[in-house]
Each structure stands twice: as structure tokens, then as C-alpha cells.
């Protein structure tokens, strides 16, 4: 009864996050031992670059050691970020790395591996594999599942052209499980007789990777069963929407932003809206932001409005007309159309 732990998109070597990613991988290894996984499957983008440093390569293998020392195995394929990187790693017992399509048989398991290729498409899932009569058929691929609207919207049309896979090909594959990598947020669904999943990054790496990080435990026992495992994370990305004058007063803004910098485990993006009396002063304050806080300034600068007769007249008309959410939006949209943000 094989048990596999599926992860993807480690991006080891991602600038500024090197330590966090290895710490998170250490946690994955701990989890893999706790849930008695026999194998860790990594569906691409182990490294962030095609030429990982020696420290990154050694860091990867060293972190896997506690798992390998118990005679367990790790199977990884290359993704669009680390094509050519896996071949630079030293041979290590129990570690199987692939940069070309391959079918690997391990007891009751057949692992059909489809590393990223610029010419790759979902058809490869059917044409570039060896037939196998193993009891459990598992596909591993680094590609864009374009039939999932959530994935398609996130990757964008250009990103989704990378190794496009559609539900038609998955339904024809006969896989019990399709272990995907490339899309950076966890997603688990069924397509015909195939369970498909993207685990997402093991550690969040941007404001697009919000929410719990996951690994999937695949239990092969009369078909496959999948258990979702929450990994937590070393750091976290959080977006805050502050309206000046409502959520925060203009005078206390820099103090409030500095408070956020105390929470060093969190990266903050603060979206500022509302009205400020003097935009120039705000910009000066925002120049000295700590590294874990970034500010998106969408405020209206009252001093600029007052200095322009057209903006001023529009502002006065709207203010006389009414107060509240809808009038605020009329004001923001109208002022930007009139050239406030130029
Ligand atoms: Mn990736």
C-alpha cells in the first residue's frame, strides 16, 4: 500500500527567501515521516534558477537526508524555472531526478514523469510514456491545466501556454492521480477517473500566494485516496486596505505603518485610499518604509485638487451631492478621469 507525499514549486534560491524555503522543506520532510510516506514526489521548480549555487544544491540534498536515511525515496522532475538544474546535482542514493519524460516502475506503482518542456502539451501524457500494467498509474507533470478556470485566470494567457493540458487529455490518460506543478496555489479536483492536484508553493513567495500551504498525501489502496495536509509557512503575505480618515488618521499613518514592521514574519501590502491633505508629505513618509511593508498609494491629494480649478469644482459638486461609499467612488473615478493622477 504505497503512500506518496506530493509537493511542488519549492523555488530554492528565491532571492531573500533562501533560508525560509529550506526551513519549510525541513518541515515537509518531518511531515512526510509523520504520515509514513514512502516517497516524496516533487512536480517541478525545485530550484528558482537553472544554475543553482552549490549551497542551494547541497542545501536541498542535506534537507532531504532524514528521509533518505530511512531508505525512503524522492522523485523530482524539472519545471520551467529549473530546466537543466537537476542534472547538476551529485548522485545520491534514493534521489531520482528527471529532465526528460520517463516511466518509472516501483512495485505496484507506475510513475509517468513529464518534466517541463517548452514544446510540451497534454498530448505527451498519452504519447510519451511506456505502457505499464502496474496497479497504480500516477502522472507527474509541470504544466498549465487550462481547463480549470481558476488556474487559467491566475496564470494568464501567456503563462498558460506553458505545457497546456486539458481535461480531454487527462480523461484519456487513465491515471489514478495526476500530480501537477506550476500553479502556485493549492487546488484539488477530479477529472473523470483521475484525481488532479496542484499543491502550490511549499512556502508563499508573493502576494499572489495567500492562504494555507499544502502537501497532498496519496494513499494507494484499492484506488487512490488523497489527504490534504496543511504545512503552515515560515512567513506570510497579508494585504490590508486602509481608508485614510476612517481606518487610520493622516497624522498617525507613519506610526501605524511602523507598527506593522514589528511583525517581521509577515509581509504587508497596505492599500491606502481616501483623502490626504498634503500628498507631498505622505510621499516623504512612504519613502522610509521598512522592508516588510509596501504601500500602494491610491489616496486623493487634496492640495492638488485645491490648486486646480477644474478638479476643485468637480470635488465641490460631488461633495454637495452626497456622502458615502458610492459618492466616494464617483469622486475617485471622476478626479482620475479629469487628470488628478497624471
Ligand atoms: Mn513555479
Could you explain how this protein is built, in words?
The chain has 342 residues and is of the alpha/beta class. The protein folds into 2 domains: 3-230, Purple Acid Phosphatase, chain A, domain 2 (4-Layer Sandwich); 236-337. Helices cover 31% and strands 28% of the residues. The protein is built from 10 helices and 18 strands. The protein has helices spanning 18-34, 54-68, 124-127, 149-160, 167-173, 253-262, 279-286, 302-307, 309-321, 325-337; strands at 3-7, 39-43, 73-77, 95-98, 102-106, 109-114, 136-142, 144-145, 164-165, 177-181, 187-191, 194-198, 214-220, 224-230, 236-244, 266-276, 293-297, 300-301. The strands form 4 sheets. It has a 6-stranded mixed beta sheet with strand order 4-3-2-1-13-14, with helices on one face. Manganese (II) ion binds next to loops.
Order of helices and strands: EHEHEEEEHEEHEHEEEEEEHEHEEHHH
End-to-end separation? 64 Å
**What is the domain total for the residues?**
2
Bound molecules: manganese (II) ion
Strand content: 25-35%
CATH superfamily of the largest domain: Metallo-dependent phosphatases
Write out the strand line-up for the largest beta sheet, numbering strands in chain order: 4-3-2-1-13-14
Number of helices: 10
Q: Percentage of helical residues? A: 25-40%
Q: Write the CATH architecture name of the largest domain.
A: 4-Layer Sandwich
Q: What is the 3D form?
A: elongated
Quickly give the structural class. Answer: alpha/beta
Output the radius of gyration: 25 Å
For the largest beta-sheet, the strand count, sense and barrel status come to:
6 strands, mixed
CATH class value of the largest domain:
Alpha Beta
CATH topology of the largest domain: Purple Acid Phosphatase, chain A, domain 2
Residue-averaged pLDDT, rounded? 93
- Poorly predicted ranges (pLDDT <50, ≥5 residues)? none
Give me the count of strands. 18
